[in-house]
Amino acid sequence: MNEELRERLETYHEEDDYESIVEAVLEIPEEERDYEMVSHLGRALNNLERYEEALEQFHAVREEGKDDPLWHYRTGLALYYLGRYDEAQREFTIADFLEPGDEDTLEFLQWIREKKGPERAPEPVLASDSAARLEEAVVPAEPTAWGEPDGGPNAAGFWDDLHPDAERYVMEPPSDERVASVEEALVFKLPAAYVSLMKTHNGGIPRNRLFVPEGAEDQAVVISAILGIGREKDHSLCGSLGSRFLMEREGYPEFGVIIAECPGDSGVVMLDYRESDNDGEPEVVHVAKGRPGKITRLAPDFDSFIQGLVRQP
C-alpha cells in the first residue's frame, strides 16, 4: 500500500470516518489489495458493526494474519459481537499469547468468561515469562484413540478436516508401491509410525499443533500441517512445494525429510537421520528458517512427536 493511501486511511480512522475507509479500499480491485489494506477494511467494518463482512475480510488474509496479534484480536472482536464466544475466546487467547498483557484483549476474555460461566471458560494467560506462559496456555490434548489395527491414531479425533486449508494437504491413503516410490525419491526409509498414520489419513492439519520439548518449554514449536506421502498435492513429500523443494529453495539441511510446515517464517519439522542409517529410526527436529537455521531436537522418534502434540491456546 502506498504512503498516500496509508495516511488517508489513518486520518479517516482518527476522525471515526469508517465509511470513507470502506469506500477507499473497495475502490481498489480485490486482487490488488494487500494485507494492510484488508486489515484497514476489516477494522472499519468492525467499527461499523458489520461483523459478518469483517469476518469475510479477515478470513481472506488468514494465512498472512496467523502470526499477527491484531488479526486475532480483530477477528475475535467480530466473533464476540456475533455471539460466537467459543471461537472468539480462542482468537483473543492467541492474541494474548502473541502480545501479552494487552488490556483490551484481557477485557474481552473477562467478558467471555462472564457470559460462558466460570466452569466452561479458562482463565486468560497472564504470565509474562515465556516458559510459564506456555505451561499455562497449553490446553491438554483431548484423548486420542490409538487403537486402530495398524497402530495409527483415530482420524476423526486427530485431524481437523474442517480447516479451510485442509484440502491442500489431504490425499488418498498411499499404497505400499506408492510408499516405496516416495522413499526411493527421498533416499530415506520413512518411519513405520509415519507410514501407518498416513495410511489412515494421508496428510492434513492436526487439531493439536503445539509441541513443547520436555525440559525446554522456551523452544516450543507450532506446526501448521503434516505432509502426506505422494506427489499429487503440491504440499506433499514429493510435491512441487514438498521436502526437496524446501531444501533447495530455503537451504534446509539434507540430512532427512521435511514432514511438517510451520507458520510464517518459523521453519519446518524434519526427520533427522544423522544418528541412524537412511533406513533407521530418525529423530524429529525443528529447523529454523535461515542459512544455516538453528536445529532443535524435539523427540526421539515420530511416534513420540505425534503423541506429544497439544492444543494451541
UniProtKB/TrEMBL annotation:
Cross-referenced SUPFAM superfamilies: SMI1/KNR4-like, TPR-like
InterPro entries referenced in this protein's UniProt entry, alphabetically: Knr4/Smi1-like_dom (IPR018958), Knr4/Smi1-like_sf (IPR037883), TPR-like_helical_dom_sf (IPR011990)
Superkingdom classification of source: Bacteria
Knr4/Smi1-like domain location: 173-308
Coiled-coil segments on the chain, per record: 41-68
Keywords tagged on the record: Coiled coil
Protein name in UniProt: SMI1/KNR4 family protein
Organism per entry: Paenibacillus spiritus
Record lineage: Bacteria, Bacillati, Bacillota, Bacilli, Bacillales
